[in-house]
């Protein structure tokens, strides 16, 4: 038991002497005793480690997915599912989990003050985007979607789910369904996912490298508002190769089931997932139907203009290993806030007034689920977005979640296995507590709970001092620092300047050239370094120059390194970036980007063909330490671009591969990478900037004054000062500590800024490391 503390909870107190930390996280020993896991196929290691490549294509991690990782890290594989977006190997070797939250900061702050965040960048290898924060960011990441406790439930929320017809003071214009579809009724074609949306939500698409062996349905592109709808639902099991299909149900518009087949997986079944699928070993034993049989039947059954309707339909199509371009996904049609999704069971009850997936029945009924998704799509088309928004689905879902939380399971196993169980509840069931350190004035808090030890401090400095003492005493700690957010005017200006800066550092000026130069040959030369967004002649000078704006920073840097100072048609040319206030420290920035831990061991290559991947497989020398091949695609036509990134385990392996690939046999151009994947995705989302490269941008007066007075809470100063302090604290933690740094982003009436996460595990050898920052 935790000894009583002096003073009243929630008030500042004196720093105590450090006690010895517990050996392992809750359930670590138990996690190794039960159940098969993919982790066991990994080579044995003495320490926990994270995957190098995140699974998410756009590197954005939702708050729910973040909660997945934290629950798995704290509780272990025998208690909760593995996180869906990254890999954490050897969880049983973790000792602590620590989350540092930098309230008031966002991804914009990180890259605006990239050099000042040097200590954090070097200490934490993995980075990922976060969506703009909800009003309950802290509650979201620990699985508490509402601050109210069960005892605070209004009477209208107790008992059964509130009626959809109950009146609530809601602003329809803020409803995400209205924001996406408008208030008027929509056509069937408007409800279809676009190709970009299908790419974002991981639907199988033709031409994508992970869909090479997928079967394409027959479709002719003549989709209309009268095209037929088909509800689809699949059940899966877990095999030695991952999830595989065990049942498919297809329902036509009238509700008639036109296909319901059990399917025998190709590989050894490790878990039938009977609690979800309802399929047991005995049911599947006599089945002879294979996946290829189902693919053939489905392809013959669906008309060319068929629209498939499902809930999280991407998973069903991937289980079928089929590609179909016309889909309605009800988990995305009924849009929810913060990228979260309503469950099918919830939508069936609230929208259709029917109960599905009843707990007294083993598993789900695939035909019932397929018919339900079809009815949900038909309801949406019949009544329109406004009718849906008036139901206030978000409030109803929160009520349901609160009711579920108020019904405490009977034993520890039920608590841990319940999908909506929060980290607080899990820790409580194991007799442990969560530490929450914050400032008294902070708005973001966790709800008071018997298993959450909250310590409020007067300043960020006191939070840091308490953290040094308290963190080793808890299996899971959240330490929140608070910084003054930018004003809307300054945020808008920073967005603008960030776009201009990135445009300028990816732009090069080259020349002088002869007036009789071969323009076509010059274009070929500069395009050989990477994708070009624009190329124009500069005629203001005595001799012509070229202005080339590249799509990626690596291409611009490669052009400068390869061509600056060379003789071309008898003239020595200079290749350089425009010189402005925003590019004065560009050489330092490029050096720091190349040294970024996330870019270590990553190569950029230009000039790759569509058969590059196949050629690579034939060169065994390059497979030494190769972890991933990243082949960017054109967002408009889906075609592979002529550059790629190769990720290796070490810098040495990458350098050896670079020497080979840029040699006479391959004739590619390349260098070590400068930009992590999440940065490309974020830059695409910045507002466009039409200012030409070289434009002089004067810093806004507000920021000039802040820097002149060196206010401690200004983000530029805070990034440098607190980055150092947090890394120093990190270096004192015991080996095996999973640490996350979260810049949650900001949200206001003037707009939202997405967040950024950094994470890493304090490894064995780091315990003797004096630290990255002094």
From TrEMBL:
SMART domains: EXOIII, RRM. It comes from the Eukaryota. Residues 506-580, 601-671 form the RRM domain. PROSITE patterns: RRM (PS50102). GO terms for cellular component: nucleolus. Keywords: Exonuclease, Hydrolase, Nuclease, Repeat, RNA-binding. InterPro entries: Nucleotide-bd_a/b_plait_sf, RBD_domain_sf, REX1-like_exo, REXO1/3/4-like, Ribonucl_H, RNaseH-like_sf, RNaseH_sf, RRM_dom. The keyword Transcription regulation does not apply. Residues 1-26 are annotated as: Disordered. Pfam families: RNase_T, RRM_1. This is RNA exonuclease 5.
